[in-house]
Specification:
Length: 405
């Protein structure tokens, strides 16, 4: 490596979008990715010929999601079946009346958030409500953290920006995102350790040598930035403080093979225990495939973190057997799973603003050095925690550099 006009650092949705935008404009650009693959927190693996998304899996706000058009242009089939998160298959462990009561409590919580005097979302919880554990579980899935760690105004910005229509990519969201960089210049297994901006050109340090670049777009996660894995000279204190204020929480997915799957309807849904914050949400036979997709987030994911993937799978199998019957135990086995908090190049799931820190998203996206732009889901003012939010910030950062050429 020697000289380049723009270095894009990080190969997730934002980095891939930035690279494609630059390349389409004829800019000499290269993407440097620490991992041995593209996609970042969107990762499609295969088991028995089935693509399984271990990270981002839903085209959230699908009518407004730019990945939909990209998928169609690249020949990726889109499943427009809506998720059944608000349904409990056969009312197992969660009757219709209880589902309605929990739903009403969530709506009341949302209304209290909008009139809250402070900014800690947990303050909008009704201490008398029996459904607070259920609301905490939802926060784990939505925010990857409990409500006590979440800025109310930041959460509402996401809630108000979202369109409640979510679709899926049959061949995998991670595969789609990686394909968007097809035949572009990338360097995998190339972590960046330092960016020196003290001279006229940026000096970017990697294990493969020093790269000289006129400009850079940095798309690594906020937890990686906050960890000091990349050293900036001169220091970008305001940017790094913003990263600390926008931590990634915990959320993991794992897949269980299901023998005798024909007895279960495709895309059915279960929540393991609506009376506990430490519970998983399950999609039974996604796409009609013989697997169960499980997800844990926030406090639930933190409680299972030290158990490892096998321990989390055992927990999930236990929850499912409690609902459906112990004879299911011999029909379920772990086939794949994630551990984003243990991944040194990611260090978590997706960002949430700490109470009082919603403005950190704007700070992170505003350059201190005009040659260095930051992008990623955490920079999005309303579509954070999503792959399309990351895409939009990557495109915006690339266009800003193009305008300044």
């Amino acid at each position: 490596m020697d000289e380049i006009e723009v270095a894009v650092i990080g190969g997730g949705a934002a980095g891939v979008a930035a690279l494609r935008t630059l390349a389409d404009a004829g800019v000499d650009a290269v993407l440097l990715e620490a991992k041995d693959r593209l996609g970042g927190r969107a990762h499609t693996v295969h088991h028995a010929g089935m693509p399984l998304d271990l990270g981002a899996g839903w085209l959230h706000s699908a009518p407004n999601n730019p990945w939909v058009a990209i998928a169609e242009a690249r020949g990726f089939a889109i499943d427009r079946s809506l998720p059944r998160w608000r349904e409990q298959w056969r009312e197992l462990g969660f009757t219709k009346a209880e589902q309605q009561a929990a739903g009403v409590e969530f709506e009341r919580f949302d209304q209290r958030l909008r009139t809250l005097e402070g900014d800690c979302a947990a303050d909008a919880l009704d201490p008398r409500s029996p459904w607070n554990p259920y609301l905490e579980a939802l926060s784990g899935y939505i925010n990857s953290a409990g409500w006590r760690s979440v800025s109310a105004s930041d959460y509402l910005a996401y809630e108000d920006a979202a369109v409640q229509t979510d679709w899926r990519v049959e061949s995998g969201y991670g595969a789609l995102i990686a394909s968007h960089a097809a035949q572009l210049r990338t360097a995998l297994a190339t972590p960046v350790s330092a960016i020196d901006g003290s001279g006229r050109e940026l000096r970017i340090e990697t294990p493969r040598g020093t790269l000289h670049a006129a400009r850079a777009i940095v798309t690594v996660s906020t937890n990686v930035l906050a960890s000091g894995a990349i050293r900036f000279d001169p220091a970008l204190d305001a940017t790094l403080h913003a990263a600390v204020s926008l931590p990634l929480g915990l959320a993991d997915k794992f897949f269980l093979a299901l023998d005798g799957a024909e007895q279960v309807p495709a895309n059915a849904h279960l929540i393991g225990n609506p009376r506990s914050a430490t519970t998983a949400t399950y999609t039974l036979r996604p796409f009609g495939r013989p697997v169960i997709e499980a997800m844990v987030g926030g406090d639930g994911a933190a409680a299972l973190r030290d158990e490892g993937l096998d321990g989390a799978a055992a927990f999930a199998i236990g929850e499912l057997c409690t609902l459906i019957g112990n004879d299911w135990r011999k029909r379920l086995r772990l086939v794949a799973g994630s551990g984003w908090g243990r991944d040194q190049h990611v260090l978590g799931a997706y960002s949430h603003a700490l109470p009082g820190e919603a403005d950190a998203r704007k700070t992170l996206a505003t350059p201190i050095d005009e040659r260095i732009r930051f992008a990623g889901e955490a920079c999005s003012p309303g579509n954070f925690s999503t792959a399309h939010g990351a895409y939009e910030t990557g495109v915006a950062a690339a266009r800003a550099l193009l305008a300044a050429r």
